[in-house]
């Protein structure tokens, strides 16, 4: 084991502070990555503050990791020292269940190992994330980054926000001839717009903020609808093949279900700390609509997404911050005061 510098929180309601944790020794199939950038996800805040009731302390958040390979195990074949690599939301899974064998490790029947807040397969040890100097991860959960180095800070959020929106867009066939709605313009929503546009869909942003109209169109939305404007919403009824709902606070789902065409789907990707209000079953039944959920993506699909984004010059819109600003960044996240993702410059650790 080796000591590494991190930013950690020691308990619910406590700030993130400089600290140290032990990283495991480098095993034969492991890759060690010196972290250059780490995105700040709303899940980091939920976990750090134990809002989902399952946090193990000390907690080192961070699962949008980009860095440079600094060491490899003796059996590693896909990476070499000096490569630019990424790590997303998970670092292990059982590898044996149907989902794992299908390349859908995020649905591992035994529960995949989160990049932080473990527990780790085999030992039950806690895992520590990317607000750190380095990380050691099994090769099969490490991703190749093919963007230009100047874009690497904006690549970091692709490891969560990117794949979280890409996976349902791909699964439900977003592309030419399809009308896709994106609810919310934040870390997830802005990536949903960029990706749906690049896939060739007709894209509509739903937002409560009139002042986000111009930004929505700049990012690739063909239309922007103010969701509290009843007239604008009524004009969209029965017209959407797919709606990706990124909002992570409880809200009325019925207003969006009515916008789906026959056989249309609304997929939830935001996870609120408390449940959404009950939806109207009849709104689903009458047009064979579907209300679904989607969780990040498997390693194979995440690599596909990264390659797609590199090919189309897609990265996240970010605000780069030093690590000692992280507690202020959390407070700003709660106010939606970021366009559209904080990314930590880990050289500041």
UniProtKB/TrEMBL annotation:
<dbReference type="GO" id="GO:0008106">
    <property type="term" value="F:alcohol dehydrogenase (NADP+) activity"/>
</dbReference>
<keyword id="KW-0560">Oxidoreductase</keyword>
<dbReference type="Pfam" id="PF00107">
    <property type="entry name" value="ADH_zinc_N"/>
</dbReference>
<keyword id="KW-0479">Metal-binding</keyword>
<dbReference type="InterPro" id="IPR020843">
    <property type="entry name" value="ER"/>
</dbReference>
<dbReference type="InterPro" id="IPR002328">
    <property type="entry name" value="ADH_Zn_CS"/>
</dbReference>
<dbReference type="InterPro" id="IPR047109">
    <property type="entry name" value="CAD-like"/>
</dbReference>
<dbReference type="InterPro" id="IPR011032">
    <property type="entry name" value="GroES-like_sf"/>
</dbReference>
<dbReference type="InterPro" id="IPR013149">
    <property type="entry name" value="ADH-like_C"/>
</dbReference>
<comment type="similarity">
    <text>Belongs to the zinc-containing alcohol dehydrogenase family.</text>
</comment>
<dbReference type="InterPro" id="IPR036291">
    <property type="entry name" value="NAD(P)-bd_dom_sf"/>
</dbReference>
<protein>
    <submittedName>
        <fullName>Alcohol dehydrogenase GroES domain protein</fullName>
    </submittedName>
</protein>
<dbReference type="Pfam" id="PF08240">
    <property type="entry name" value="ADH_N"/>
</dbReference>
<feature type="domain" description="Enoyl reductase (ER)">
    <location>
        <begin position="11"/>
        <end position="344"/>
    </location>
</feature>
<keyword id="KW-0862">Zinc</keyword>
<dbReference type="InterPro" id="IPR029752">
    <property type="entry name" value="D-isomer_DH_CS1"/>
</dbReference>
<dbReference type="InterPro" id="IPR013154">
    <property type="entry name" value="ADH-like_N"/>
</dbReference>
<dbReference type="GO" id="GO:0008270">
    <property type="term" value="F:zinc ion binding"/>
</dbReference>
């Amino acid at each position: 084991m080796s000591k590494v510098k991190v930013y950690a929180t020691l308990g619910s309601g406590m700030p993130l502070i400089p600290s140290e944790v032990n990283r495991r020794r480098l095993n034969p199939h492991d890759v060690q990555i010196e972290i250059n950038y780490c995105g700040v996800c709303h899940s980091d805040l939920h976990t750090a503050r134990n809002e989902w009731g399952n946090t193990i302390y000390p907690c080192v958040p961070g699962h949008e990791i980009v860095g440079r390979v600094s060491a490899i195990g003796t059996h590693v074949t896909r990476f070499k020292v000096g490569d630019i690599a990424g790590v997303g939301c998970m670092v292990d899974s059982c590898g044996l269940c149907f989902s794992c064998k299908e390349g859908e490790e995020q649905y591992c029947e035994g529960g995949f190992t989160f990049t932080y807040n473990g527990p780790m397969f085999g030992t039950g040890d806690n895992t520590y994330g990317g607000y750190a100097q380095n990380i050691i991860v099994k090769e099969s959960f490490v991703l190749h980054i093919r963007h230009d180095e100047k874009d690497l800070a904006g690549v970091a959020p692709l490891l969560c926000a990117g794949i979280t929106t890409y996976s349902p867009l791909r699964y439900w066939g977003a592309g030419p001839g399809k009308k896709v709605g994106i609810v919310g313009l934040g870390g997830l929503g802005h990536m949903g717009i960029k990706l749906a546009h690049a896939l060739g869909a007709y894209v509509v942003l739903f937002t409560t903020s009139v002042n986000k109209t111009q930004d929505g169109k700049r990012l690739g939305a063909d239309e922007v609808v103010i969701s509290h404007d009843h007239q604008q919403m009524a004009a969209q009824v029965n017209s959407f093949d797919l709606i990706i709902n990124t909002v992570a606070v409880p809200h009325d789902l019925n207003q969006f279900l009515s916008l789906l065409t026959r056989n249309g789907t609304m997929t939830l990707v935001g996870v609120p700390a408390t449940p959404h209000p009950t939806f109207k079953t009849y709104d689903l039944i009458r047009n064979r609509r579907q209300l679904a959920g989607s969780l990040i993506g498997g390693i194979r699909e995440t690599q596909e997404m990264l390659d797609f984004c590199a090919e189309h010059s897609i990265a996240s819109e970010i605000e780069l911050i030093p690590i000692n600003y992280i507690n202020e960044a959390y407070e700003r996240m709660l106010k939606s005061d970021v366009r559209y993702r904080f990314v930590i410059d880990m050289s500041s650790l």
